[in-house]
Design a protein that fits this description.
With about 190 residues, this protein is an alpha/beta fold. Helix content is about 30%, strand content about 30%. The structure holds adenosine monophosphate (AMP). Adenosine monophosphate binds next to strand 2, strand 7 and helix 5.
Length: about 190
């Protein structure tokens, strides 16, 4: 008997959401540098119906009253975060690259494939015990997410969820972020 492998898109919100994201992502080889296959989600952002469907799914997955604020990671995470926050009727807090925030901020530096990066959040971004949903477009190695989750906690927030539109599963970020749960609409 021949073994068959399903190519059906999969994700934590089921095949329909996974298919939707898969149908609106473009693979760009060798961007921003040779060897990287860039997952471009601009077609999803640009399609009103599809964008609304994924935002509504993120809110439904976590529950409308399960978080007090949404954190978006610069820059594409801002697009998702602002929409989720609006849909849930809560506020949005940006986690920014170094040197962009005007007031005192916590910072976290982490390793990239080449070199390092620093992310920052305002020291007064959260009131103690604020339940925080963190969102980004793509989860790759998990370094960006790990630094962001640490920053939120240092600033007094309680991370209650982390969602990405697309996860590169083979890079093992889920293991790196454990026991913190990851919600990915599409895992490739
Ligand atoms: P990482 O820290 O390795 O998980 O990288 C995650 C961050 O880099 C996210 O903010 C993504 O927007 C971006 N990123 C990393 N790899 C890719 C990729 N292959 N395609 C698109 N964005 C990526």
């Amino acid at each position: 008997m021949t073994e068959t492998h399903s190519t059906e898109p999969r994700g934590d919100s089921g095949p329909q959401a996974a298919r939707l994201v898969a149908s609106r992502v473009l693979d760009v080889p060798d961007f921003p540098q040779p060897g990287i296959l860039f997952k471009d989600l601009m077609p999803l952002f640009a399609d009103g119906e599809a964008f609304r469907a994924v935002i509504d799914e993120i809110v439904a997955y976590h529950g409308r009253n399960a978080f007090d604020v949404v954190v978006g990671i610069e820059a594409r995470g801002f697009v998702v975060a602002a929409a989720v926050a609006y849909a849930a009727g809560v506020g949005v807090v940006p986690v920014r690259k170094a040197g962009k925030l005007p007031r005192p901020a916590y910072s976290a530096t982490y390793a990239l494939e080449y070199g390092e990066a620093t992310l920052e959040v305002h020291e007064d971004a959260f009131t103690a015990g604020h339940r925080v949903l963190v969102v980004d477009d793509v989860l790759a190695t998990g370094g960006t997410a790990e630094a962001t989750l640490d920053l939120v906690e240092r600033a007094g927030g309680t991370v209650t969820g982390f969602t990405v539109l697309l996860e590169l599963g083979f890079l093992g970020a889920r293991k790196r972020l454990a026991p913190r749960p990851v919600h990915a609409l599409l895992t490739v």
